[in-house]
Design goal:
With about 60 residues, the chain is mostly loops. A two-stranded parallel sheet has the order 1-2. The mean pLDDT is about 80.
Length: about 60
């Protein structure tokens, strides 16, 4: 289960977050909880722009 304190985050923040270091049982639904999803083993993230350079990426 996702840490209950995570439910206190606003959806605008959760929708930008990937989850990691989770237990596979019980089965969890990160999308239902408004997160981007779970990071998979070997998953690669490419960061191509800084928020200062793209104002639309800044948090609300």
């Amino acid at each position: 289960m996702v840490d209950p304190s995570a439910y206190t985050l606003p959806d605008t923040i959760k929708q930008k977050m990937w989850l990691c270091h989770y237990q596979p049982n019980p089965k969890q639904d990160s999308l239902k909880d408004n997160f981007l999803g779970f990071v998979s083993k070997g998953q690669i993230f490419e960061i191509s722009a800084r928020a200062e350079e793209q104002p639309e990426l800044k948090s609300a």
